[in-house]
Write a structure and sequence with these properties.
Blueprint: E1 17-19, H1 24-33, E2 38-42, E3 48-53, H2 54-66, H3 75-78, H4 92-102, E4 106-110, E5 116-121, H5 122-137
């Protein structure tokens, strides 16, 4: 039953990430070159400190254009802080429900020390649901 499934087997275990001190344009290149909607932002010790989304980047670029500035700044200047996270053994349905309620496309997965160990996305959750549906209809 889907209600009893935890995230451990379904997370993306090596999500794209940037350091808070990285140049924003380097993170934008990472996002666009890899067709991502955002990246996790971590410290050098892999501790999650935020998320940088396409929208965060777009806001920064628009502000720089408006202010006629060549250097946009650092990832830490534009990332979203205080990110909602989950842990490996959280229930997939509970996580999906919370993501929908908050309008989030992705959820970082951290260990008990706040170290990034993966990420779960809407698409990955849909794959889990689809897989369970195929098993159920056989």
């Amino acid at each position: 039953m889907l209600r009893s499934v935890d995230l451990s087997d379904y997370i993306h275990k090596n999500p794209a990430k940037a350091l808070a001190d990285d140049r924003l344009f380097d993170a934008i290149d990472l996002i666009t070159d890899n067709r991502l909607t955002g990246v996790c932002v971590v410290t050098e010790k892999e501790e999650l400190v935020g998320i940088l989304s396409e929208m965060d980047c777009l806001r920064a670029v628009i502000a720089a254009t408006y202010n006629d500035t060549a250097d946009v700044g650092r990832v830490s200047d534009f990332m979203t802080r205080g990110v909602q996270t989950c842990q490996l053994h959280d229930n997939v349905v509970d996580v999906a429900n919370d993501m929908v309620a908050k309008g989030h496309r992705r959820r970082p997965v951290v260990d008990e020390n706040g170290k990034l160990i993966g990420q779960i996305s809407c698409r990955q959750i849909l794959r889990v649901v689809s897989m369970f549906n195929r098993r159920k209809t056989r």
